[in-house]
Q: What sequence folds into this?
């Protein structure tokens, strides 16, 4: 879409910018370490150069406070991760964790993930895309804001490598079934579960902050893993 079209037909976004304030520690990272961890959404990058090595690239959309992304990056030092989040205090929190753990295999975009995927990620380049606990947009009139919709699945397929995977998790049953239906009709994706439905949480996915809150409230959790065929 050209910039003129983008202005004439504003996209329905999957987020509203939350107002939460950054803590002193998060703000210090935002002020002092931004360029070390964050990429400029207006620039084009060669990610092998950014990370200083060639390694499978995993994108996490909407990492929240980044605790599960930092844990995954620590557990998988052989992988490169791009985290994308619009909530700035969350970006500050992830930077703090990356500094504390001394991790250099995560870079961050503070931007709309859809725009980053569309404009900054090469086609057939991603080994995996993670979407953990996307905003569920409970009310029917808000369902159009859910990030997983047919246009998102098309974008995903375009950006994944052959055999690359998409892993989503949600604690909202209606959204889980909605995602299952939307992903299952895509001919280019194959469900990794034995019965073409949901998967048990794999060991590599830590519990996220949002998930832990849901579990305390008695919510269920549904994981979906599809690979590009
Ligand atoms: C419900 S929270 C879950 C956060 C985290 N994944 C977790 O499980 O704790 C969803 C997050 O996705 C982010 N988000 C929603 N749409 C986004 C988009 N298009 N681009 C980047 N971040 C987005 C929101 O800002 C929010 O932090």
A:
């Amino acid at each position: 879409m050209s910039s003129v079209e983008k202005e004439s037909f504003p996209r329905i976004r999957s987020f509203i910018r939350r107002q939460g304030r950054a803590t002193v520690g998060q703000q210090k990272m935002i002020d002092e370490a931004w360029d070390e961890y964050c990429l400029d959404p207006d620039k084009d990058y060669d990610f092998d150069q950014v990370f200083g090595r060639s390694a499978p690239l995993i994108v996490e959309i909407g990492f929240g406070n980044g605790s599960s992304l930092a844990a995954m990056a620590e557990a998988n030092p052989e992988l490169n991760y791009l985290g994308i989040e619009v909530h700035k205090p969350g970006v500050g929190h992830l930077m703090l964790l990356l500094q504390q753990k001394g991790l250099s295999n995560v870079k961050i975009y503070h931007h709309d993930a859809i725009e980053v995927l569309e404009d900054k990620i090469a086609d057939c380049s991603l080994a995996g895309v993670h979407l953990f606990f996307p905003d569920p947009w409970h009310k029917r009139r808000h369902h159009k804001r859910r990030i997983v919709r047919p246009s998102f699945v098309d974008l995903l397929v375009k950006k994944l490598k052959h055999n690359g995977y998409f892993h989503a998790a949600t604690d909202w049953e209606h959204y889980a079934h909605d995602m299952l239906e939307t992903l299952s009709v895509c001919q280019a994706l194959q469900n990794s579960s034995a019965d073409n439905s949901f998967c048990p949480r794999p060991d590599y996915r830590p519990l996220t902050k949002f998930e832990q809150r849901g579990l305390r409230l008695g919510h269920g959790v549904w994981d979906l893993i599809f690979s590009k065929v």
